[in-house]
Amino acid sequence: MARTIAVSGSASGIGETLAGQLRDQGDTVIGIDLRDADVCADLSVPEGRASAVAETLDRAGGRLDGVVACAGVSDFTIMPVKVNFFGVVGLLDGLRPALAAAEAPRAAVVGSISGTHPVDDDVVRHCLELDEPAAIAAATKVEESGYGGQLYPSSKSALAQWMRRVSVTPEWAGAGIPLNAIAPGVVLTPMSAPLFEDEGMVEVMKEAVPMPLNGFAGPEVIAEALRWLVSPANTHMTGQVIYVDGGAEAVLRGPSDF
Fold first, then answer.
1. 27, 126, 148, 188: least CB-packed within 10 angstroms?
2. CB-based contacts of 172: which residues, under 8 Å, 6+ apart?
3. Fold entry, domain 4-245
4. 171 class by beta-carbon count within 10 Å (0-12 exposed, 13-18 middle, 19+ buried)
5. Does the active-site annotation cover 152?
6. Which UniProt keywords apply (predicted)?
7. Span 27-50, pLDDT tens digits
8. d(CA 142, CA 75)
9. Options 85, 152, 162, 243, the catalytic residue
């Protein structure tokens, strides 16, 4: 049965690959991105999220079978907090009623192995309080202090915790909507491409994200996992962070965390 699925970040990387896989299996995809998408919107700001939600709902006719939030950024500025956390949460919250109207709705987000790395506690706390001005203020302090590298992990840690918290609520599980996350390791996408131009950075990535099973992943690997999460076959998995990372999480955290 053909389904209608909204995919953010559809213009490149994991989102583009997933959108292609879904269309190949006969689904209708509503792509959301800054440009080159069905719905062009800036998810880093509240008005952009509202615009994305409104246009997506209009295109979907008020009912969505699935939503996958792939859009994200990985720089050392406040942008990961604005896009990776508030952009995702705003989009999912806005589209949730359309999911609830579907027969077998599913939702998924893209987390990261970096969510297990050191984070800024204030940024994460304000994100989980859904206090965007406070979170941005805290992130700005981190950026200005020279520790901007903590902001991407902070955004992904907060996203995973938000997902686990809301996934079992009446609004999500109670409405029959599984909500899960795929947490990749290092993925070969346009976002990560500049890192591979520096041999020293490649070695840093191998140390920070050791992937003993088959090394760095292509975007199709992550897309396939997301595709299953939002398929009708997933009837009982919710609130899970699934590490598709070549074993990095097991190496970094050890066997006692499971």
1. 188
2. 96, 107, 166, 179, 238
3. Rossmann fold (3.40.50)
4. middle
5. yes
6. Oxidoreductase
7. 999 999 999 999 999 999 999 999
8. 13
9. 152
